[in-house]
Every structure is written in C-alpha cells, then in structure tokens.
Design brief:
This protein is of the alpha/beta class and 385 residues long. 37% of the residues lie in helices and 13% in strands.
Length: 385
C-alpha cells in the first residue's frame, strides 16, 4: 500500500480573496440594483478595453458566455462546430444545447492546441464555427486559422479563460477571432465565484447577448415591460463584478509572476532531466506570449507521480484527464462516435499541471525537490497492473 496523502501545502488552483477584494464586494450601493448595474458595466468596459474590442457582456459563467455567443451568431440545428478533442466540455456542451453538432479535431503535440492543419480535415459544408481554445495559456496560431475561416466562410470564437493577458504576435488573445469569451471561476481573472464574459466588436451580436442574459428584456424598459427575445436568467452580480475589476487590474503583474515561476520550473526540470527525470517540458513558440496560467508537463509516469506528490503535500492537477468526445453521454446525445484522435488521446494520458500560481514563492523549489526524489526508474503502477 502506498503512502497516505499529506495535508496540501501547495494547491494547483488558486483563487485570491484579499482585503482589497473583500472591500470591493461592499462597494455596490445598497438598493434594487444588485446585478447588471454600474459595477458590471464598468467591468465590461475595462475588460473590453484591455482586449481592444468594442464590447464585453458580463454573464453568470464562461459556459453561459459561449452559449449566448452561439445563439447571438445564429448557430443552431444543422450546423457543425469544431471543438478541440482534448479540451474542457464547454464547447461541445454549448454546441449541443443550441442544437448544433460538435465535431472534434485533433491537436498539435507541441502545444496541445488545435491548429489550421488539424481543423481543416474535419470541415464540411455544415461547419459554421471553430472554437479556438488557448489551452493552458499558450495562444493558438491564429493567423492561419483566421485565414482558413475566411476562405471557408466560418466564424472563430476564442476561449481565453486560460490565456487572459496572453499575446499572439503582440495582439491580445480574445481580440483576433470574431468573438471570444472567458470564465472568471478560478481563472486568470477571477470574481471569487462564478462569472464570465463574452467579447465582440460586432454590435448586433453584443446587443443580442445582452438581451438574452436577462430574459430578453429591452434595456431601459419598465420591469418586464418589453420582451424582445425569449432569453435566460444569466446575469452577473454587482459584487462579483467589483471583485473582477480588482482582479483585472492585476492581470499583467500576476502573469509576470507566473512567467517567472514557469522559468524557474523549466530551468530546474531541465537540470533534473539530465539526471534521469523523464518529464517533457511545455513550450512557448516564437509567435506566442504565454500567460502561464497552467504549467503543464508530460510524463508516462503521470499517475504515479501525482500520487507521490500528494504524499508530499503537493496538489498536481490534470487538465484534462478525459476526452469529452468519448464520454458515453456525449456519444449518445449526438449518435456519433468519432473514433480516436491519436494526439489528443496520448496527451491526456500524460499531462500533469504543477502548482505555479502567484503566491507560490519558494514553493517552486520545494516542488522541484520532491520531483527529484521521485523513483523515476521504478516500474510504474500502470505497468504493474
């Protein structure tokens, strides 16, 4: 029997909630406006300005943001949406809920991102949207993807939840596709709770998303006075938005710390690799300025290593362990088993996220020290079974 897990010293995911954030929750004025009010409007303006787009629409989650973006764009039955096979379930989930069909493309081994070369083989005359997820914070190679979209008459929606503050050839990710969205739940920008935002420079899409998030009520009309669309209750609270504004103001500073942590990990692991440690390091390609939200390494000994680190008080994450496209519920809903996606399937069996948040401090050295103590030459638990 292996060692028991130790109390967690270093968590993989980090959600700050300090005095400035606590004070921000009290900033909204007492009264009837507790959602979609001046704090939300200011948060929308500030986030959109940071990305260099015309409009942000604050909503209740990142998933909601994508759902409303798809509806605003007119995506529905008969359409296909290209999703990365190794990513979180948001893209296929929203695709199914608007009545369209998710189509799963493989990804690049180097970055774990989809790419024009992996997307093009799965396009059909029914394809309408590509959801480009900047996985772990490394930007997708957007210029070839946007060129493919232009040639085929497709929309591109960027998922920037891991990559808020990242740059592609100097441009903020989230400003390159036709629309973008983010979650604020334990992400680069946080509201210390659930929240999200969609972004676009297309005014009609922004108008429709803003209507849909609040039952379809026309802004400025009397309570329940004019219903323009059949919508949802997907609003963002004022206190959450106030916390989000604080977090947004820190993005560049905190991403700089994440970058410094990533450099320390990369240098330390490179030294360990010369001593028999079998860990594949993440990359940052020349066109990219990584946000380093997740520091993701790869190793065939992943499961053994995660268990070992837990006995040392280190929480290692897996983003993400399972490929949604093979989940029985999704196969049953669409009626299609797309078959293997070899690169994505291999990646999800090897990936591991090391804790690398801005409050790690000397914890980076502690994690490196424990990685050095792992019995790399032992037979893996998977092999033994």
């Amino acid at each position: 029997m292996g060692e028991a897990a130790a109390p967690v010293r270093y968590r993989c995911l980090w959600t700050p909630f300090d005095d400035e954030m606590r004070e921000a929750t009290l900033r909204p004025a007492a009264g009837p406006v507790y959602y979609d009010g001046p704090e939300v409007e200011a948060f929308e303006r500030e986030a959109a300005a940071y990305l260099g787009v015309a409009r942000g629409v604050g909503v209740s989650s990142g998933t909601t943001a994508l759902h409303l973006a798809m509806l605003a764009m007119g995506i529905g039955p008969g359409d296909e949406v290209v999703c990365a096979a190794n990513a979180y379930l948001t893209a296929p989930e929203c695709t199914i809920h608007v009545g369209a069909t998710p189509v799963y493309c493989d990804v690049l081994d180097e970055t774990a991102n989809l790419d024009a070369s992996t997307v093009e083989p799965v396009l059909t005359p029914r394809t309408k949207v590509i959801v480009a997820i900047h996985n772990y914070g490394h930007p997708v190679d957007m210029d070839p993807l946007m060129g493919l979209a232009r040639r085929r008459g497709l929309f591109v929606i960027e998922d920037i939840a891991h990559a808020f503050g990242a740059r592609y050839k100097g441009r903020p990710v989230g400003s390159i596709g036709h629309a973008s969205f983010t979650s604020f739940a334990r992400k680069v920008v946080t509201v210390a709770g659930q929240g999200g935002m969609a972004f676009t420079s297309e005014p009609e899409w922004a108008r429709r998303m803003a209507l849909l998030r609040r039952h379809g009520w026309e802004s400025g009309a009397a309570y329940r006075g004019r219903l323009v669309l059949v919508g949802f209750n997907h609003t963002l609270g004022e206190s959450l938005a106030a916390v989000g504004r604080v977090s947004l103001s820190r993005v560049d500073r905190e991403n700089a710390v994440r970058r410094a942590n990533a450099l320390r990990y990369t240098e330390g692991l490179a030294r360990l690799n010369t001593r028999g440690v079998a860990v594949r390091l993440p990359v940052e390609l020349p066109y990219a300025a990584h946000s380093w939200f997740h520091y993701v390494v790869r190793t065939p000994r992943r499961d053994d290593l995660v268990a070992f680190l837990s006995t040392r008080g280190i929480e290692a994450g897996i983003h993400y362990r399972h490929t949604v496209y093979r989940e029985p519920a999704y196969v049953a809903r669409t009626g299609v088993d797309p078959g293997p996606r070899p690169v994505a399937d291999r990646i999800v069996s090897e990936i591991m996220t090391l804790p690398s948040h801005p409050e790690m401090g000397g914890g980076i050295d502690y994690v490196l020290g424990q990685l050095a103590e792992f019995p790399w030459t032992a037979t893996s638990r998977t092999a033994r079974s």
